[in-house]
Amino acid sequence: MELWHKKIQFKAIALVICLMAIALFFIPDRVFSQVDLLPKNKIKFQGKIIEDEDISAVGIVGKYILIGADEGNTIQVLEPNKKRSKYRVAGNIELLGKESKAEIDLEGMAVINNTVYVTGSHSSNYKTIIDENNRKNVFRFQLNPETGKLESSIEKASLQTILERDKILSQFANIPYNENGVDIEGIALKSDRLYFGFRTPVLHDDYIPIVVVEFEQINPSDRYELRYVNLDGNGIRDLVAVNDGFLILTDETGTKGSDYRVYFWDGNDDLPKPDNRSAAKLLREIPAKKNTKAEGLTILAETASSYRILVVYDGVAKGNPTIFEIDY
C-alpha cells in the first residue's frame, strides 16, 4: 500500500511539472532572456568605460551587455555580478583594429542571437573627426555568448552609395546633420533585414526615412527599400525589433535636453495611401536630466501586454543605464 501511494505521489508531481511546462510554452509573445533577473529600475556599469559620458549604443548577447560610445571605435563587453545589478568591463572589441585611434561616430547596435551589427552615423561635418569616412560604415561580427569573446572576423560595409544614389536621400547625403543632413542613429534587425533609422533629415510633413536592406546587399546598393515613419516631428535616436514591429526612441531634432519618447511602429511604410492605415503609436515618455540625452535602447523582455527596456544616456558618467516598463 505504501509503495502504491508513493507511485501516485510521483505521478501527481510529474503531472504538475508537465502542466507548468505547457503553461510556460504557451505564454504569448514572451521573450525569455538571461537578463530577466535584472533589478527593476537601475543597474550600474563598472570598470574602465571608454568615453564614459558619450555612450550611444547598447545590446545584449547571452548574459553580457555590450555598449559603445559615439566618439570611440570600440564595443565594450560587460559581465554581470551574481545579482545582475552591476556589469563590469570584461573585454573590448576594436572595430578598426587595436592600433587605430580614429572615431567612427558609433550610433547604433543591433543583436540577433550572437551576431552583432554596429552602425556609424554616415553624417558629414559632425564635430572634428580625422577621417570622415570612418563614420560611414556598418560592422558585423559574432560574439561567443558563453565567454563574451569575439569569435569571427569583423566585416564592414557602407551605406554611402545608397545615400548618394537614392533620389530622396541624395539631397541630404553630404550636408551637415545640423542643416537637416543625413544622420543615422538607430539600427535594428528583423527577418534578416537591417532597418537604419535616421534622426535627420526630417522630410515634408515630418516624415523620417528608414533604409531597409540585408547586410550582404548594402554595397551593391540596388536591393534596398526606403520606408517612412511619422514621429510627430521627432527624429530617431534608436530602434529595436519586437515581435510585431519595432520600438523607436525619439527626440526633437536639434534640441538638447528635449523630450524623449518611445513609439511602437509596425514596420510598414507610413506614407498616406488609400490602403495604408499604418501609423506609429506613442507609448510613453522617457525622462532625461538636463544636458543628458537618451541615446541607446534595447529590449530586455516582452509579454502580451508590456515591454521591458534598457536605456543608456549620453552626457552622464557611465551611461546611467535605466530600466523602464512600458504597458501597451
From TrEMBL:
Domain DUF3616, by residue range, is 54-137, 147-317
Its source organism is: Waterburya agarophytonicola KI4
Q: What is the protein's given name?
A: DUF3616 domain-containing protein
Q: Which InterPro entries match?
A: DUF3616 (IPR022060)
One Pfam family of this protein, by short name? Answer: DUF3616
